[in-house]
Batch of 2 targets.
Target 1
Amino acid sequence: MRRIGVKPNAITFVGVLNACSHVGLINDGYKYFNMMINEYGIKPAIEHYGCLVDILCRAGCLEEAKDIIEEMPMRPNKVIWMTLLSGARNHRNTKIGEYAAQYLIELAPETTGGYVVLSNMYAVAGEWEKVSKVREMMKKRGLRKDPGCSSIEHKGVVHNFIVGDKSHPQTKEIYSKLAEMREKLKLAGHVPDTSQVLLYIEEEEEKEAELENHSERLAIAFGLNNTEAGCPIRIMKNLRVCSDCHSVTKLLSKIYSREIIVRDNSRFHHFKDGLCSCKDFW
């Protein structure tokens, strides 16, 4: 745009900053943020600050992101607090996660995702007493986590799956494919991340089985069974993909030589050759 003389506007910089976030370009993010102000006289809106916070959170610069939030000229919204909370969960910084969750819950106590991310962060840290307290808080406020649901379209028909679903007409074939996937994943060296599986499931084998039945894995199994080799598999999920399913889907894209595109409630994930386009998980 600069080369051909088209003047970028505030929306242009939201797109550029968002792109910097997804590929981890911290220095470029700051460069374009400052360019917007100093060269084009554009006053940063909350969306621009949100992008800058996202850039820093994805890179693990949580203290820096916290400083940006505290210095913003406007009141942070729930998206910004959720970004900091998610970054703290991803980089296992409980202190900053609690800080973000406190402000998020004060600002938007009805935001179920905040409680879920906080609970997952505590679970990863092994702080199960705090996990129970978060769930009790949700219960008292009449909130509950929606069950995970993944959808895949095939020949004009949308097929929906929830965790552990056995209602589909192809259930036998789907679970047979899941068993095959499990064996191939083991051979590829995958070790299930059971750190966030529910407290009341004590046995490690039961925790692994719980993960294997997540809705997106059922949808992937259906896709592998019903689409031609080499065809992309496209899935929609109502919740955020968990870290273990993210790792598994990366491996499956390589094992079966498939592109797998998952649109969760956060963003698109494009899995190909054992890699993913996002920087959500490391």
Target 2
Amino acid sequence: MKGKSEGKLAKQICKVVLDHFEKQYSKELEDSWNTVRDVLISPSLWQYAVLLNRFNYPFELEMDLYLKGYHQLFQGSLPYCPKSLTCYLSRTTDRLPSERHQFGNLKKYYLLNAASLLPVLALELRDGEKALDLCAAPGGKSLALLQCAWPGYLHCNEYDRLRLRWLRQTLESFIPQPLINVIKVSESDGREIGDAQPETFDKVLVDAPCSNDRSWLFSSDPQKATCRIHQRRNLPVLQMELLRSAIKALRPGGVLVYSTCTLSKAENQDVINETLNSYSNVMPVDIREIARTCSQDFTFAPTGQECGLLVIPDKGKAWGPMYVAKLKKSWSTGKRHEFCKQF
């Protein structure tokens, strides 16, 4: 029976994409790629974290998770980790069922890849700040931001109409009406928001469209997969355009976090290095402390950057891929700053 299910799973993996990844990531990740590949091609190894909703807190569920051996993520390990952000992990691949939406009742928890909380924590949103989630669907990071702080204004933008509907449903399912009133949801081209709202936001999150390695591996149509691999070369251009817009939208002194769910160096480190090499008023922010304090729950690959982290899937820590980089817009536009120091 086990052999049959494994055979069925193997047929679902797109060989065109896997071969492409083998060629690229065996060079970029070297010895780590073998383990990363084994996790990526085996959904049975994937893990799901449980983010508890502070607006309808499930005390009974929390006790049940504790009794089942779950442990709380980030507990006391980071300089910025609000107590209102509560997320539980299991060392096993147990997965809670997703909650159904019930009109008038907020959902109690949200299932997510735990690594997707790292960009949220890196942003360090505070009460009263104006924030922009430039590419917000399906809404998990927007939801997590609202677990951390009560912003003065949160602009959640999504250009894709179908994904926009998903974003709206997520917010309506988890967020109470008083807080919904300080959230604006828009369907704008993220590349134009910077010109439309220059120097407006204290914090900007750019969770950019990317290759999304997990889903690409299970593309059923080899012809479409080949086309997407070809299109992949153009993604860094789009990502740079979104970052330019985000930098325009950010006030001087504000903070920007860039993230993707791909391992690709071209979409991660190279995009950030090009950005920092192009803007004299944008500086890298050292976030290596996150890797040092979270290594028990996440596996990090070297990036050669102090401002960038890469979470790679590992056995027992099957989180990621997730790249996170943190930048700050300075008040001065004078001397060009050195970008992402090597270490």
